[in-house]
Give the backbone structure.
Amino acid sequence: MNCEECNNQGWYEVANIRTETIEHVQCMNCALHEQFKETLIVDLAKVFTSASREKICEILASLCVNNVDRNEHDNLERLDNFVQSKDLIPLLAMAQAYAQ
């Protein structure tokens, strides 16, 4: 989402004529959008609980590979090294980073 009100900053400046200062006001459009995303994540997680573990793992693996491939600062060889070493901690950290 590209917010026209605050340019995705989350805040915008408004002149206060009483105090003759500029105030920073939280952008309600962005706040509501973030709240909607958080609610959607929780609701989607509830729906995914009924899916098989294998299918969820397949989807997660596909998302990770595709995101690594799209990122110009990352490469698939690094991901393959993590997979071959079967070290779960960096794989989960990478998946969580791409989820953000």
